[in-house]
Every structure is written in structure tokens, then in C-alpha cells.
Write a structure and sequence with these properties.
The chain is mainly α. It contains four helices and no strands.
Length: 127
């Protein structure tokens, strides 16, 4: 799933650059956020099928993340033209810190009981 996510995120970043030129930063971030949210929400309903989960959790969510990522990075470069490295570092720090929160949300959807994946289904881990 991670490799599919990265592929679609790269596609989303390229698409996001074009969307940013047409719609501007606010609508680009909004479209990216909507796609990301729809992908996460649909993943909850598609957990029974691996391929549908792959489509929603990896492809749709990654497209949203990629499109939404272009708005803050482009704005940061515009606001700090002489310090683009600092601007990119601030945006990347926020993007990476989001994983701390989103990891808990994703665990709640995919593995709500926080069960060990190495324990067979017929064994109750609480015993």
C-alpha cells in the first residue's frame, strides 16, 4: 500500500501544481483536503476488499495529499523567496508531524481493536 501511496502522491503533486496555477492556493488546498478526507472516509467502508481499500486508502488519499501539499509549499516559497530552504523545512515539518496524529486515526479505522497481526484469528489475544 505504501508504494501505491507514494506513486499517487507524486502524481498528485504534479496535478496540484497545475491546479494551483488555475485555482490559486486556497482552492488547491481545499480540493486536496476534500480528496484526502473522502479517501479516508471511503476506506472505512471498503476494508472487506483489498483492491477497493488500495484504491481508497492509497490512491485517492495520496492524490489528495499530493494536491494539497502544493499550496503551502508554493506559498512558503513566495513569502520567503530568499530563504526557500527554511520555507521548505517548515512545511515539511508540518507535513511530517501530521503523521503523528493521522497514524492514530488510521489505526482506529483499519485495526480498531489494535490486534496483533501475527496472532491467528482463532486465538483470542485477551486470554
Amino acid at each position: 500500500m505504501s508504494s501505491v501511496f507514494l506513486i499517487f502522491q507524486a502524481i498528485g503533486i504534479n496535478v496540484g501544481g497545475q491546479v494551483y496555477k488555475v485555482l490559486g492556493p486556497r482552492l488547491t488546498a481545499l480540493v486536496g483536503g476534500w480528496l484526502f478526507s473522502v479517501g479516508v472516509t471511503l476506506t472505512y467502508f471498503t476494508l472487506d476488499s483489498f483492491y477497493l481499500s488500495l484504491l481508497t486508502n492509497s490512491a485517492l488519499t495520496a492524490l489528495g495529499a499530493g494536491i494539497g501539499y502544493t499550496a503551502p509549499i508554493a506559498c512558503a516559497y513566495t513569502w520567503l523567496p530568499e530563504r526557500t530552504g527554511l520555507a521548505a523545512g517548515i512545511v515539511l515539518s508540518g507535513y511530517g508531524a501530521g503523521a503523528l496524529v493521522f497514524d492514530q486515526v488510521q489505526t482506529f479505522f483499519i485495526n480498531p481493536g489494535n490486534l496483533d497481526p501475527t496472532v491467528p484469528d482463532d486465538i483470542d489475544p485477551s486470554e
